[in-house]
Each structure stands twice: as structure tokens, then as C-alpha cells.
Write a structure and sequence with these properties.
six-stranded parallel sheet; globular; alpha/beta; seven-stranded parallel sheet
Length: 362
């Protein structure tokens, strides 16, 4: 039995990192046991929406706790769990530095999953130097897309002993979207109400399409909810309708495929979006911003149309093209969804991760 201790100091709201962690625990083989450490501040949110078989909530984030307490939390968990390998999953580029620096001083092998975004301003020089040093001491570094790897190498000058690209993935849906484009058009996106997700970009784009009745649904919640509701109220036309539905424990994509016509991702920053992956494997036509790993999904599988991130005018033009002639995007969805099912199948990708565990355990 290989005992893997997965550590994440993520403190934000619900999102893709938690999905990633749940997949690691749910899909690994029986000879691999996975225990997860979450930051104590996330217990209510995580327990309310996700089911983890083996997890603890302890001080991990330097937003709330000092270095001594964080190191003690990790040290205690390693001893209690008799971990063979540590898998550090970062909530952001510079998070978990304390944890990784502690692990680099021990003899315990550790691997890191990184999700770099194309914004050098997120890193000050001191943090960058620390990241460069600590990732060189990791047994293996995993990137969630080849574009993330390119960003790490070229923008942040990250060097590693061993690295590989393992995409974020999903379990392919058996029931795909079968009918397309009915009026009035119903558009949706999924994610937190935070600037990163670009909800404001979608609202502004829809406001520039006055001649179509459009229903835009946000499946999610978050800090900027009221800001987006007020923006929609101030600029959308009378034939535009905007709804925020809040979080669901599990989205029923069978019902979504019968109701919605188009998925839009307008993120400013992403590693590789799970909601985009889910929409792709469900068979939705897709319009997507050209940020980081999302580009790879769209281009690798010819799975949708891209627009420049934050460019709501270009998004509006792309949206108008779909509304006036939906056949191009519909055909990409109809014929290329099987490519997504092959390239981003979570069971195949977890097998790749398991191989890394086996190769690096102490």
C-alpha cells in the first residue's frame, strides 16, 4: 500500500482545485491510499459541497497562521499517516511556499501540481526566487497543460529535476447534447463571482447584442454577486435576462444539455478550467477566452471559438456570429466532443499520476 498525503492550503471559495483533489481520492487504485490536508478555514465550505473519504482540516495557510504552526501541522500529519510521498497542490502560484520549503529540508519525497497563469505581476522577485529554489528540490512537478509548462519556463524561469504535463480531466458523459440552438437563446457559465472569471466581460458583451432575446445564467456564487447583478441591471436591454443560481452540490448535465444552447468562459486567468471541461464533454457549443490552459483544450480538439480575454467587444462579435449562424459552433460540438473524451479522460490521467506516485515513493 502506497500512502499519499495530499496537502492544499487553498482558502478561496469552491472551485476546480477541490474537484481535482476529489478526483485524486476517488479514482486512484486500491493499492494507493490518499489522505488530504485542507486549511482549517475551509471546513464548512468543503464539507458542505464535497465528499472526501479521508481528510483533515488543519492550519496551513499563511494568510491566517504563522510558519511554526503550519510546519507543525504538516509534520504531525506525516507522522500520523506514515506517508510514503507528499503531493502538494497549490491554490495559487506562490502559496504553499512554507510547506514546500519545509519538505525540501526532509528526506520525504514530494511532488507538486502547479497551475501557472500568464501574469508575471502576480509574483514579486523574492517569492519568485523562493519558488525557483523549492521546485528544483521537488521529486516531480506536474503542470496541468503544456501552456502552463511554457509559462513556467519562459515567464517564471522555473527549473525542475523531473516534470510532466497531466491535464485536468473529467469522466466523459454518456448522454451528450443532442439538440441545438432554440430561440430565445439560453447561455450559461459556471464559477465563482470573482474578477478572475470575467463575468463582467460576458454581461458587457451581451449588452452590445440588442436584437436578440438572451437568457444568461451564472451557475455559481461569490463575493462579487451583487456587483454583477447591478452591472446587468444598468446596461442590459429589456430583452436580456441575467440570473445567478448559486452553488449546486452536483450539476445535472443531462438537464443542462436540454435547456442551454451555449457555454461561455470569459476567464482572465485559469490553469485549465473544470467547468469548461465539463461543458466540452457534455457537448455544448463553446466560446472561450484565450487565457492559459483553456486555449489548449479549444485548439487541441477544435472544440470552440476563442476571443481575446477581457475584450468584450470581440466576445460580442463572436456571440453575434453564433446567434445569427450557430451551425459552425454546433458542428464543432457535435463532431469533436469525442476528442475531448479521449484527451481529457480522468481515468487515463489518474493512471499517469499513479505512475508518478509509484516512481517517487520512499
Amino acid at each position: 500500500m502506497i500512502k499519499v498525503l495530499v496537502v492544499s492550503d487553498l482558502t478561496g471559495g469552491l472551485g476546480g482545485v477541490y474537484t481535482y483533489l476529489q478526483q485524486i481520492q476517488s479514482y486512484t487504485s486500491k493499492d494507493i491510499s490518499v489522505h488530504i490536508l485542507f486549511d482549517a478555514s475551509t471546513k464548512i465550505n468543503v464539507s458542505g459541497y464535497y465528499q472526501f473519504k479521508s481528510a483533515d482540516f488543519v492550519p496551513l495557510s499563511n494568510k491566517f497562521y504563522d510558519e511554526i504552526l503550519i510546519v507543525e501541522s504538516v509534520k504531525r500529519a506525516i507522522k500520523q499517516y506514515s506517508a510514503d510521498i507528499i503531493h502538494v497542490v497549490n491554490g495559487s502560484i506562490k502559496s504553499n511556499l512554507i510547506i514546500r520549503e519545509y519538505l525540501s529540508e526532509t528526506n520525504i519525497p514530494f511532488i507538486v501540481t502547479e497551475q501557472y497563469v500568464d501574469d508575471s505581476l502576480l509574483l514579486d522577485e523574492i517569492s519568485l526566487n523562493r519558488i525557483q529554489k523549492v521546485n528544483l528540490s521537488a521529486s516531480h512537478v506536474i503542470y496541468v497543460s503544456n501552456i502552463n509548462l511554457e509559462i513556467a519556463n519562459k515567464l517564471f524561469r522555473i527549473k525542475t529535476k523531473n516534470h510532466s504535463t497531466i491535464y485536468n480531466g473529467v469522466l466523459p458523459l454518456k448522454e451528450k447534447k443532442k439538440s441545438y440552438s432554440k430561440k430565445p437563446y439560453r447561455i450559461f457559465t459556471s464559477g465563482r463571482c470573482v474578477p478572475q472569471k470575467g463575468i463582467d466581460t460576458i454581461i458587457k458583451a451581451i449588452s452590445l447584442v440588442p436584437n436578440y432575446e438572451i437568457y444568461f445564467h451564472l451557475l455559481g456564487d461569490g463575493e462579487n454577486k451583487n456587483e454583477y447583478l447591478n452591472l446587468a441591471k444598468s446596461i442590459l436591454k429589456s430583452n436580456h435576462h441575467f440570473f445567478i443560481y448559486g452553488w449546486a452540490k452536483q450539476l445535472d448535465y443531462n438537464s443542462l444539455t436540454n435547456y442551454f444552447d451555449l457555454y461561455i468562459s470569459a476567464s482572465r486567468q485559469e490553469g485549465l478550467s473544470y467547468s469548461l471541461l465539463e461543458a466540452a464533454t457534455a457537448g455544448f457549443p463553446i466560446i472561450c477566452s484565450d487565457c492559459s490552459g483553456n486555449v489548449e483544450l479549444i485548439e487541441l480538439c477544435n472544440r470552440g471559438n476563442l476571443f481575446a480575454k477581457e475584450d468584450y467587444q470581440q466576445l460580442s462579435s463572436t456571440l453575434l456570429s453564433f446567434l445569427s449562424n450557430p451551425y459552425e459552433l454546433n458542428n464543432k460540438a457535435l463532431f469533436n466532443t469525442p476528442l475531448v473524451d479521449v484527451e481529457f479522460n480522468i481515468e487515463v490521467l489518474i493512471t499517469q499520476l499513479e505512475n508518478i506516485y509509484r516512481q517517487n515513493k520512499q
